[in-house]
Amino acid sequence: MALRITVIGTGYLGATHAAAMAELGFEVLGLDVVPEKIAMLSAGKVPMYEPGLEEILRKHVAGIEGSTGRLRFTTSWEEAGAFGDVHFVCVNTPQKHGEYACDMSYVDSAFESLAPQLTRPALVVGKSTVPVGSAARLADRLAELAPAGADVELAWNPEFLREGFAVDDTLHPDRIVVGVRSERAEKLLREVYAGPVGEGTPFVVTDFPTAELVKTSANSFLATKISFINAMAEVCEAADGDVAKLAEALGHDERIGKKFLRAGVGFGGGCLPKDIRAFMARAGELGADQALTFLREVDSINMRRRGHMVELAREAVGGGSFLGKRVAVLGASFKPDSDDVRDSPALNVAGQIHLQGGQVTVFDPKGMANARRLFPTLGYADTALDAVRGADVVLHLTEWREFRELDAKALGEVAGARIILDGRNALDPVAWREAGWTYRAMGRPKA
Ligand code: UDX
């Protein structure tokens, strides 16, 4: 009989994973403790903006006309325990308030609720990003709590999906990593991922700690790469070099590669910043803190970018105070094709300028509702043109395609002053300058 799969936690990761598992042909039951989320997903609606996700959800959610009916949602742990052969735990692990460490309370409570319901053989698969050592601890907890005893096992299978590409990354991952303690667990996971593995996705089998570490070290590497190029941007500014050209030239070296070398206001979002901090905190607990002190520098280079953008904006409005100055901010989400504003550099810069007395007006193609919730006191406009109207300076802080396609001439006609600061090195300097704008980007010569 085909495997039956549950997905515990239906946030970004879980909702995508559940829909993708249904797409791969499995019967899937998604569980969340928030009834409103379950009601929404059961109606075929996705609570965030993620290209393609709603389509595959609607293709499979039971009760939607023409769907396969393979995907259902519940709030009942009992139902999940009875249903699943494989249980994927996809709850979030945010940063703890006031410290670097990761908050494991959602993962812990998912295991505490699920385990007592496991009365038949099952594989529990952790997907959440956790501090190394968590899987071993959770395996002990399962052994203590699951009525089926040794027939219930744990595996760790980190997730590498990127927001904005979540569906594709889940259906066609660039690698699958599984931390297992038995051949049975490996075999079950090979069955779950037979589709992508058949397409050639590498399947890497490890122990628990290595699987946990793959995820945190991958994110640390990506964060380091971004902060490296941002550090070079600082040097370029001091030496009158051009970081965009520098990155292009570096990227031709295959050992370096051209991806993740875009200098600008730096990284944000729900993963990279908190993951590198949690990694440092965990290394400290393990007595290996020296190994990761460089991540402190990666973090501070990144955070410095935001302050630097504020200073560039101050310079642009005359060098003194922001009082009475109008600042247009293009972008609110932490990256394009996402409505996620968690730790968004764009909103952080907008907020700092606002707190210093500037009149900030923000526009984002998808992130407006979330931005309003987080920063209700900022000004918001319905279009980029409206945001720019009367502005003393325009800040481009999230590289949406829509912003690259803006008509610089038309914006110039409504702007108070034609000064644009490109915080993502993504606009075409020639086009903006030709339209009469002073174009300035981070890490590049002034003209
Ligand atoms: C990241 C990892 O890529 C993913 O594998 C992991 O599962 C979760 O964390 P995500 O947070 O969706 O994914 O975004 P990502 O595309 O990695 O971008 C992170 C941040 O870095 C964004 O704010 C982006 O704007 C910034 N970035 C990215 C740069 O500033 N420069 C670059 O060259 C690339």
Shape descriptor: globular
CATH superfamily descriptor of the largest domain:
NAD(P)-binding Rossmann-like Domain
* CATH structural architecture of the largest domain: 3-Layer(aba) Sandwich
| Class derived from helix and strand content | alpha/beta
- How many β-strand runs? 14
Strands of the widest sheet, in order across it, are 3-2-1-4-5-6
Strand content: 5-15%
- Within the CATH hierarchy, at the fold level, what is the topology of the largest domain? Rossmann fold
Helix content: 40-55%
User: If you average the pLDDT, what whole number results?
Assistant: 97
Cα-based radius of gyration, to the nearest Å: 24 Å
Major β-sheet annotation: 6 strands, parallel
Number of domain units: 2
CATH C-level of the largest domain: Alpha Beta
Number of helices: 19
Distinct ligands, ions and cofactors found in the model: uridine-5'-diphosphate-xylopyranose
| Low confidence ranges | none
Task: State the distance separating the first and last CA atoms.
Answer: 66 Å
Please describe what this structure looks like.
This protein is an alpha/beta fold. The chain has two domains: 4-206, 3-Layer(aba) Sandwich (Rossmann fold); 207-447, Rossmann fold (3-Layer(aba) Sandwich). Helices cover 44% and strands 13% of the residues. The chain has helices at 12-23, 35-42, 53-60, 77-83, 105-114, 134-145, 166-171, 183-192, 194-198, 208-239, 243-251, 272-285, 293-316, 345-355, 368-374, 384-388, 401-404, 408-414, 429-434; strands at 4-8, 27-31, 71-74, 86-89, 122-126, 152-156, 176-179, 203-206, 326-330, 359-363, 379-380, 393-396, 419-422, 438-441. Strand 4, helix 5 and strand 5 (122-126) form a beta-alpha-beta unit. It starts with a strand and ends in a 6-residue tail after the last strand. Bound molecules: uridine-5'-diphosphate-xylopyranose (UDX).
